Structures are given as C-alpha cells and as structure tokens.
DNA sequence: TCACCCAGTATCATAAGCAA
DNA sequence: TTGCTTATGATACTGGGTGA
C-alpha cells in the first residue's frame, strides 16, 4: 500500500508550523487548534516517521536531523499546493510562462497570427504560442488532454463536448493584378466568368464548400470554370497573381493581406455568395479554465464582428 | 442506485500530570 | 512557571450492510 495514503497531509501543516515557530503552543495558536490537539498531531507525525522530529532543548522545540532533512521538500511541496489552490481561478498574463497551442489553417496563421503575436508581446511577454495545422478529427482528439487549446476556423463536425464562439465574419472577394486587361474599375460578371482562376483549398477549413458554390455559380451561367492553378498554400500566390491574369476568390481578410505584399487589387464579386464565418472552438473541459478563457477573449477582442 | 443505519475509527478538547 | 504529554470522553467521519 502507498505509505503516503496512511498519512494525514494536514499533519504536514503542523510540521511546517513547528519548524517555523519552534513551539507546540504557538503552532496550535497559529493553526487555530488547542495545544493538546497539536501535541497529539505531533505524536502522530512521530509515529508515522518513527522519529521524535522535535525535541525540547533550551526552552524550545528543536528539529531533529530527520526533521531538518524533510524541512525543505515539505515546505516546497506545501508552497506548490498553496499556489495550485489559490491561483487556480486566476490567470496573470504578465507573469505567466504558459504555452498555448492553437490549431488554424495557413490562412489563419497569415491573417490572425501577426495580430495575436503583437498583442501577446505587449500584455503577455512570457506566454509562448504554437500554431499548428491539423484536421478537425485530429484536433478534436488532441483537445481533451490539452495538446491543443483552441481551434480557429469553420468546421461543421465538432461534437457535443466542444464549445464554439464566432470570432469574426467576412465576405468573399476577388483578387487580380493591377492593370488586369479584362478589369476596368469593377469586376464584371463576364470578366469573372471568362477568366482563368486559382483555386485555394487548404487542408484545414471549409474552402471546399466555397469551391462548390463557385462551381454552382458557373454552372448557372452555362460556363465551365477554368482552374489554371490549384494550391493548398497561399504563400506564393500574391506574386503569381501580380504577374499573371489569373483571378482568385478568397475571404476579404486574406485578400487584404495579399495587398500588403504584392501589387494586386481587391474587387467585389459580381454575384451574391454567403458570408464566411470564423469560429473558435474549445473543449468543455477547458470552458472554465482561466487561461483558456483569457486566450479566447484575446481572439474575440482582436477580431470583432 | 440511493438512502439509511450502525459499528469502528479518527480527531479534538478538557483535565491532570510531568519535566525543564 | 511554562510548556509538553497523556488519559479520557465527546463528536465527526468512514465504510459495510441492508432494504426500497
């Protein structure tokens, strides 16, 4: 049987107080017990450890060599317990050294991550971030044990054990190079339908649904959509768009990120298409976790509807 | 599965005695 | 005299058994 099981851990508080005050009476006073009760507690400690622990000498209760040997580990353990109990409802971003793991696709990392990293540098300098990309099935398996703290994106297959909150909404736009020969000020429907397109389908997210909507739109007009380039990563796309006549349909937040890196223009689509919604997902186990709550609040405040 | 009862055990306080 | 230990009784807690 585990020896610790037979020890009343409250007795360690008596041990700790005895070390500090060197008196059974003052220990009793400090702990709100009577002196005999404290003496009895000391007797149980002595019985458990097989050592007197404290002996009377020069008018005070002096620790034995065994008591001195146990002093540091016991005080350290009690300190950790106190911190675990007292701090469990509180998360201090300024002093925390926690690492958050956030699952988001490549677009999320491009759009959301820069703002989050900048915010963290200001208000949570010791907090580390790990951005990862994985399928929603893998993310759902990793979230209950804390390997993934938060998932950012749009998913329809998260189970009942998960919460979700809308982080932001956006709309789809078209991106084309400046000086595109078929576009003069506005993107017309004939120009859009006749252009060659880039299809952006990252491994994680709901972009396949967008592709289906676009295919439906083209079919409605009796035109076959020509996809000249299909990519899963947007890294080199601004450069490609700026040097070709290809058009790409993407969320507006991503389109504006493209504008910062290449001479491209953003156009409203010449047809109606449902808006895009970005959610954050977390496991029920971390619903009341102060650190996770703080993380969610950062995303919600940085990317308002 | 839950509520209740009961016996055994642990803990605490009071009182008294003992040692430095 | 002060402070610690021990004996004793009261109370609370725990776990097993039983019945609804």
UniProtKB/TrEMBL annotation:
InterPro entries: LysR-type_TF (IPR050389), LysR_HTH_N (IPR000847), LysR_subst-bd (IPR005119), WH-like_DNA-bd_sf (IPR036388), WH_DNA-bd_sf (IPR036390). It comes from the Bacteria. One of its GO terms (molecular function) is DNA-binding transcription factor activity. Residues 7-64 form the HTH lysR-type domain. Keywords: DNA-binding, Plasmid, Transcription, Transcription regulation. PROSITE patterns: HTH_LYSR. Belongs to the LysR transcriptional regulatory family. This is Transcriptional regulator LysR family. It comes from Cupriavidus necator (strain ATCC 43291 / DSM 13513 / CCUG 52238 / LMG 8453 / N-1) (Ralstonia eutropha). The lineage of its organism: Bacteria, Pseudomonadati, Pseudomonadota, Betaproteobacteria, Burkholderiales.
């Amino acid at each position: 049987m585990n020896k610790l099981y037979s020890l009343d851990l409250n007795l360690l508080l008596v041990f700790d107080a005895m070390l500090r005050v060197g008196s059974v009476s003052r220990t009793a006073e400090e702990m709100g017990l009577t002196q005999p009760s404290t003496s009895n507690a000391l007797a149980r400690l002595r019985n458990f450890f097989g050592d007197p622990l404290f002996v009377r000498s020069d008018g005070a209760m002096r620790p034995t060599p065994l008591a001195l040997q146990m002093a540091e580990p016991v005080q350290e353990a009690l300190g950790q317990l106190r911190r675990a109990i007292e701090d469990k409802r509180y998360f201090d971003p300024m002093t925390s050294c926690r690492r958050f793991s956030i699952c988001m696709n490549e677009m999320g990392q491009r759009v959301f991550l820069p703002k989050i990293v900048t915010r963290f540098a200001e208000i949570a300098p010791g907090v580390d971030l790990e951005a990862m990309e994985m399928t929603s099935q893998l993310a759902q398996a990793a979230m209950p044990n804390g390997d993934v703290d938060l998932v950012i994106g749009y998913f329809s297959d998260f189970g009942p054990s998960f919460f979700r909150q809308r982080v932001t909404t956006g709309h789809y736009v078209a991106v084309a190079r400046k000086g595109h020969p078929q576009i003069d000020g506005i993107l017309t429907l004939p120009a859009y339908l006749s252009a060659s397109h880039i299809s952006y389908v990252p491994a994680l997210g709901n972009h396949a649904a967008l592709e289906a909507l676009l295919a439906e739109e083209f079919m409605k007009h009796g035109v076959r959509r020509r996809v000249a380039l299909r990519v899963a990563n947007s890294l080199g796309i601004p450069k490609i768009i700026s040097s070709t006549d290809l058009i790409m349909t993407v969320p507006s937040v991503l389109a504006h990120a493209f504008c910062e890196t290449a001479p491209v223009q953003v156009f409203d689509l010449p047809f109606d298409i449902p808006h895009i919604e970005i959610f954050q997902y977390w496991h029920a186990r971390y619903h009341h976790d102060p650190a996770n709550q703080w993380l969610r609040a950062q995303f919600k405040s940085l990317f308002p509807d």
